[in-house]
């Protein structure tokens, strides 16, 4: 069980990402001088015994990074050996390239004429034809609108519901709480397969097939359980004294929640919003099953059309991929400052 | 939450640890009315979730279980043809579907591959995520840039990434094979050969999953107190010992949760398989979830009963896994 942090201020301060070290200090490191060694590999550059602060020119406390709470931050101050530095950067560069390349390649492909879509040149006859063709000749904008509507609704409702639930299980003891927590966890396990036919039938019965509302409701069931867990973790880091002071001043539990606690939980709300949005923006199974007909498809359904129906048109498909990824990446950028804190806050059980 | 996971917790704190501003009695003796007056706001706050989950998950679940005990398919469920409403004519068949699934080859072979897929994806993803989180947790030039780049696979919607990979994997014109051809190596049938296809889908899923692991574990690392490392160093522990004896135990609360979640997610990972290979070639990469979906929506006549049966079996397997996981954690002294 996560014990409440006796120093909540630190938890909040950690939401601010540490700034990278200043230029003049790049060789000075607080880290242990070698990357976490892998078993069975000899360690390059074993550390020398830690020099005494008095003789170590680099012993000055680094400025700007606030309190260093990093695992490797400590009193250990010596220069990382050049070899270890190179290895560290090389590893990170290789990993970054692998992470970025597939996405980058699609972006580059979308800027080539369709005839050259599969060439290996990075750039060739750069053109925007794929984009203009996509917007002009396919129902892409309709799909895009559908996805925006569905993801937007899911986000708004999901944040609201996850926040209230998370707050209730964080602060109150009430009959049914344990059961609720477990239910939230168990719903994560529900396979699409067991639910999709019955939900399909319910939606058909309610006339919600091919209707955004049906998908929004479905997505809420996917996103809310996890988000409620995360929000609970966030609320746990907010000191109870704040609630108590609200009560003392005569606020109702709802008033306390709305006026005092929610503003403090903004990072948590950002993470929750991000998660709801991404869930709705990128879901495939329900969207493929519930939505038919060109005018009702979401982006996930629409993109499949380029593969099945027209035999993989890489040009328009890469352009569509870029246009789909951009909004998601923007939402992500907005939320990512809080992600690290958010994930770790929610990941701890309580 | 920034937990202080300085020392491994000794002993468990089982039972309820809820702390309310007014810790009311767990079960009020004054009956329902007092319970309502004490807890109405808490219940009001969780009501929306309960309602949504009840309607969209509770009822379908019951119905799914019911369907799995019948021989329902496309031809015998209630349906409309024009203006005629045809009533349902499917019959109750008891546990026949389960017997068929558990004794037939298809379910067991699919289950085998699903287990391989889940274990290999989660293990590799966790190892890579932990490695990268450890590297990013040092003071290093350009740390924020690295973090942004490494998180990218998570920021791009999954189905877009999967299409990107399809593009790279394409046997005749994909970039990977062109690069191999440049090196004089024969084209690899990335998605058209059963073994290669399995390798390919696992690779894509790992690529998709590492950023989440990395971010979660990085958060855990940043909440570990530096003093412990100093003390360990004073005592002469080398980097590897510090990693094993401080970092790993300190990350336990985070890592147990992310491993549980990512196991469940991977087991039910629909889009990667569905969009990359459609379960092919043949049924080589079909995991339980995609196969159950196929029964419902891709074959004719649609076999609702078999699909629901597989779905219920998936759920039972995951519940067993979660219960077992909890028990193991309990025995190791974590209070869950």
Please write out the topology.
The complex is a heterodimer of chains A (350) and B (336).
Chain A: H1 8-13, H2 82-110, H3 129-137, H4 140-171, H5 177-187, H6 192-206, H7 212-236, H8 240-248, H9 253-264, H10 266-282, H11 285-290, H12 299-308, H13 314-347
Chain B: H1 31-68, E1 79-81, E2 84-86, H2 96-103, H3 105-136, H4 143-155, H5 158-169, H6 175-182, H7 194-222, H8 226-234, H9 239-267, H10 270-276, H11 288-297, H12 304-331
Antiparallel strand pairs in B: 1-2
What attributes does this structure have?
heterodimer, A: 350 residues, mainly alpha, 13 helices, 61% helix, globular, disordered C terminus, B: 336 residues, MetI-like fold
What do you see in this structure?
Chain B: It is found in: Cell membrane. Chain B: InterPro entries: MetI-like, MetI-like_sf, UgpAE/MalFG_permease. Chain B: This is Sugar ABC transporter permease. Chain B: Belongs to the binding-protein-dependent transport system permease family. Chain B: Keywords: Cell membrane, Membrane, Transmembrane, Transmembrane helix, Transport. The complex is a heterodimer of chains A (350) and B (336). Chain A is built from 13 helices and no strands. With 350 residues, chain A is an all-alpha fold. Chain A is globular and about 70 Å long. The longest helix of chain B is centred in the first third of the chain and has 38 residues. The two termini of chain B are 16 Å apart. A two-stranded antiparallel sheet of chain B has the order 1-2. In chain B, strand 1 and strand 2 form a beta hairpin. Chain B is mainly alpha-helical and 336 residues long. Chain B has a domain of 223 residues: MetI-like (MetI-like fold, Orthogonal Bundle), CATH 1.10.3720.10. The radius of gyration of chain B is 25 Å and the shape is globular. In chain B, helix 1 packs across helix 12 and helix 7 crosses helix 9. The N terminus of chain B is likely disordered. The chains are: A mainly alpha (350), B mainly alpha (336). At the A-B interface, helix 2, helix 4, helix 5, helix 6 and helix 7 of A face helix 1, helix 3, helix 4, helix 5 and helix 6 of B.
């Amino acid at each position: 069980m996560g014990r409440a942090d006796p120093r909540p201020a630190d938890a909040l301060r950690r939401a601010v990402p540490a700034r990278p070290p200043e230029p003049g200090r790049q060789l000075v490191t607080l880290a242990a001088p070698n990357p976490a060694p892998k078993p069975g590999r000899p360690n390059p550059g074993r550390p020398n015994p830690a020099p005494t602060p008095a003789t170590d020119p680099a012993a000055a406390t680094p400025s700007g990074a606030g309190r260093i709470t990093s695992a490797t931050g400590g009193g250990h101050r010596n220069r990382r050996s050049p070899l270890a530095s190179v290895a560290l950067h090389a590893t990170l560069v290789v990993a970054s390239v692998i992470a970025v390349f597939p996405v980058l390649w699609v972006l580059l492909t979308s800027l080539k004429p369709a005839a050259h879509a599969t060439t290996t040149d990075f750039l060739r006859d750069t053109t925007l034809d794929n984009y203009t063709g996509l917007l002009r000749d396919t129902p892409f904008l309709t799909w895009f609108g559908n996805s925006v509507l569905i993801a937007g609704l899911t986000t708004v409702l999901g944040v609201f519901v996850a926040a209230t639930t998370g707050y209730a299980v964080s602060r109150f003891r009430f009959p049914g709480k344990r059961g609720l927590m477990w239910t939230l966890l168990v719903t994560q396990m529900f396979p699409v397969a067991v639910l999709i036919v019955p939900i399909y039938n319910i939606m058909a019965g309610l006339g919600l097939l091919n209707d955004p509302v049906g998908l929004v409701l479905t997505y809420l069931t996917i996103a809310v359980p996890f988000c409620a867990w995360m929000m609970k973790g966030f609320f746990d880091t907010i000191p109870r004294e704040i609630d108590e002071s609200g009560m003392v001043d005569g606020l109702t539990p709802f008033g306390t929640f709305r006026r005092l606690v929610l503003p403090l939980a903004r990072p948590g709300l950002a993470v929750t919003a991000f998660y709801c949005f991404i869930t709705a923006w990128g879901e495939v199974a329900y969207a493929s099953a519930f939505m038919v007909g060109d005018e009702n498809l979401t982006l996930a359904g629409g993109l499949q059309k380029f593969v099945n129906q027209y035999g993989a048109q890489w040009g328009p498909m890469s352009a569509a991929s870029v246009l789909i990824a951009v909004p998601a990446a923007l939402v992500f950028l907005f939320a990512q400052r809080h992600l690290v804190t958010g994930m770790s806050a929610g990941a701890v059980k309580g | 939450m920034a937990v202080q996971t300085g020392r491994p917790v000794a002993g468990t704190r089982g039972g309820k640890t809820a702390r309310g501003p007014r810790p009311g009695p767990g079960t009020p003796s004054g009956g329902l009315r007092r319970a309502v007056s004490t807890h109405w706001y808490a219940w009001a706050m969780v009501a929306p979730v309960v309602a949504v989950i009840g309607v969209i998950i509770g009822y379908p679940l019951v119905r799914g279980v019911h369907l799995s005990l019948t021989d329902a398919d496309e031809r015998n469920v209630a349906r409309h043809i024009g203006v005629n409403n045809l009533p349902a004519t499917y019959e109750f068949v008891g546990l026949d579907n389960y017997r068929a699934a558990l004794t037939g080859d298809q379910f067991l072979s699919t289950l085998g591959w699903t287990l391989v897929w889940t274990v290999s994806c989660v293990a590799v993803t966790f190892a890579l995520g932990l490695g990268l989180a450890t590297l990013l947790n040092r003071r290093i030039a350009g740390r924020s840039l690295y973090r942004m780049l490494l998180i990218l696979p998570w920021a791009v919607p999954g189905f877009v990434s999967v299409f990107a990979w399809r593009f790279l994997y394409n046997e005749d014109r994909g970039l990977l094979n062109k690069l191999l051809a440049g090196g004089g190596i024969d084209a690899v049938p990335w998605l058209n050969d059963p073994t290669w296809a399995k390798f390919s889908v696992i690779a894509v899923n790992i690529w998709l999953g590492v950023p989440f692991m990395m971010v979660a574990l990085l958060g855990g690392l940043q909440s570990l107190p530096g003093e412990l490392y100093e003390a360990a160093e004073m005592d002469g522990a080398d980097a590897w010992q510090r990693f094993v004896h401080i970092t790993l135990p300190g990350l336990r609360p985070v890592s147990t949760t992310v491993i549980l979640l990512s196991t469940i997610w991977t087991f039910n990972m629909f889009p990667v398989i569905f969009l990359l290979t459609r379960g092919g070639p043949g049924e080589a990469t079909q995991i339980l979830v995609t196969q159950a979906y196929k029964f419902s929506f891709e074959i004719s006549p649609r076999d609702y009963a078999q699909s629901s049966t597989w779905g219920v079996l998936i759920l039972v397997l995951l519940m067993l896994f979660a219960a077992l996981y909890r028990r193991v954690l309990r025995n190791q002294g974590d209070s869950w």
